[in-house]
Specification:
Blueprint: E1 5-6, E2 18-21, E3 29-35, E4 39-46, E5 48-53, E6 56-61, E7 65-68, E8 74-78, E9 83-89, H1 114-130, H2 135-154, H3 161-183, H4 190-197, H5 201-212, H6 216-234, H7 239-245, H8 251-262, H9 266-271
Parallel strand pairs: 1-3
Antiparallel strand pairs: 2-9, 3-8, 4-7, 4-9, 5-6, 5-8
Helix pairs in contact: 1-2, 3-5, 4-5, 7-8
Length: 272
């Protein structure tokens, strides 16, 4: 099933960006199709990970990095262990460099040096992890060096009107999907959410179908499943309690949606 989710990216508490090791480092990991408004860089130092975006598959090996643009729908798979540094840069960081409509896109251009970008990112991460006196100043120094490289060597200046329009639609939709994630435990009918955002139910339904190729109802169920799965794995709540906590109409409804998504019942999943 082709599901796409908007991911809300929050910076580290002491930094204006988010820096961490990829959560799929142990392998046997799949992150379904999603998007976020931040610009994201994956830098593999050990092993490999695989990306799917725009119908293309990319295998990223040790020593290689990949840029994910704002609102670029992608999925990630890591079948084997790896060590990957991830940097997520808030879109607002590039204020003043937008081409138009808060749109900016990065891609390797002639003369762009991935190795230089990789070196700065690894250095930035090592400094942050060491946490020695004055480390934040050094981290920010490397961070701004990285931003300079992106803006001067990777920023695309030619504007694709179709891409800009798609970006605008995903920006609008992201506000709605953020709301769904914040209130997913509540009753959230299509009509209610459409009214909150000033759309007709028909138009809101069309937004989901056209922009991310999934129905409103299915998208909301995927959010609820994502959170319910965490409680299912903890094993502290009954299936009925999990269903009630995460907005499902009943335990039976939860089981039906879960089996359609994962191929087995929640009770079977918990036993495994």
């Amino acid at each position: 099933m082709d599901k796409r989710q908007h991911e809300l990216v929050l910076p580290n508490k002491d930094l204006p960006f988010k820096l961490f090791l990829f959560e799929g480092g142990d392998g046997n990991y799949i992150r379904e199709r999603h998007w976020h408004r931040s610009v994201e860089i994956f830098a593999v130092t050990e092993g490999e990970i695989r990306f799917f975006r725009g119908g293309e598959r990319t295998i990223l090996k040790a020593g290689e990095l990949l840029l994910i643009n704002s609102n670029e729908v992608h999925s990630v798979m890591a079948p084997t262990p790896n060590t990957t540094i991830v940097l997520q840069i808030p879109l607002g960081t590039f204020e003043g460099y937008f081409t138009e409509e808060r749109y900016i896109r990065f891609a390797p251009t002639k003369g762009a040096d991935d190795e230089a970008l990789m070196t700065v990112l690894k250095k930035l991460y090592r400094t942050y992890q060491a946490g020695e006196e004055g480390y934040l100043l050094k981290v920010l120094s490397d961070y701004y060096r990285l931003l300079y490289i992106l803006v001067t060597e990777y920023r695309e200046k030619a504007v694709d009107k179709e891409e800009v329009n798609r970006n605008k639609k995903l920006n609008r939709l992201a506000k709605i999907t953020d709301y769904l994630r914040d209130h997913y435990q509540q009753e959230l009918s299509l009509e209610k959410v459409a009214q909150i955002f000033g759309y007709s139910p028909t138009y809101l339904s069309h937004m989901f179908r056209e922009s991310i190729d999934i129905s409103y109802k299915m998208y909301l169920q995927e959010i609820r499943l994502e959170y319910a799965l965490g409680d299912l794995e903890k094993g502290e709540l009954t299936l009925s309690e999990i269903a009630d906590k995460h907005g499902f109409a009943s335990g039976k409804s939860f089981a039906k949606v879960f089996k359609r998504r994962y191929g087995i019942l929640p009770s079977e999943y918990r036993k495994k």
